[in-house]
Design a protein that fits this description.
It is a single chain. This protein is α/β, with parallel strands linked by helices and 171 residues long. The chain has one domain: Rossmann fold, CATH 3.40.50. The chain has helices at 2-18, 24-36, 61-65, 104-108, 121-124, 144-149, 156-161, and strands at 39-40, 52-57, 73-74, 77-83, 93-96, 114-118, 129-134, 137-143, 153-154, 164-166.
């Protein structure tokens, strides 16, 4: 039931982004939108009434597609999208769309920032969520050790949908 709802929401959001055929970057942006609904940030990381800030790094198609999230509501908060190049302070979500050439992932570690990247290697580099295309379908994985270090709680519902979950000694 949750998976069905997540898939429908992803397709609806992505379809609204361009009103045409859904491309990979649009689907990934829709996944980001839905993922944040299943994450709990620690008290104080999101003051009451504050927007949820999605920061994007990189200049590729995913970075551009994230613009569709601006102004949408997730978890009772309005989403604000901005680009980041240096310090990710003020970001609750950091999407590394073109890898991590400028060290943003290491600057985000230990802070309450949901880091999202592409490829399974992102999890092994201590990213929290990795988006991966397998057999033409978008799947994701989660690194629970990295989530705990960021003091973020990923819901059990979300983890049931993950294709890969690293927990403990890279299991």
């Amino acid at each position: 039931m949750v998976l069905h709802g997540l898939v429908l929401a992803v397709l609806a959001l992505a379809g609204n982004a361009m009103g045409a055929a859904v491309d990979e970057a649009q689907v990934k942006a829709a996944f980001v939108f839905n993922l944040v609904r299943y994450v709990d940030w620690p008290e104080g990381a999101l003051p009451p009434g504050a927007p949820l800030t999605v920061c994007r790094a990189g200049s590729g198609a995913l970075s551009a597609a994230l613009s569709v999230l601006e102004g949408r509501q997730a978890g009772g908060r309005q989403i604000r999208v901005r680009s980041v190049e240096g310090d990710p302070a003020g970001c609750q979500v950091l999407v590394l769309a073109d890898g991590d050439g400028n060290g943003l992932l290491s600057r985000a570690q230990g802070r309450p920032i949901l880091t999202i990247g592409e490829g399974w290697g992102f999890l092994e580099e201590s990213g929290i969520v990795a988006l991966v295309v397998l057999d033409g379908k978008l799947v994701f994985g989660a690194n629970m050790d990295a989530a705990r270090r960021a003091n973020l709680r990923l819901s059990a519902q979300l983890l049931k949908l993950a294709r890969r979950v690293l927990d403990g000694a890279g299991k």
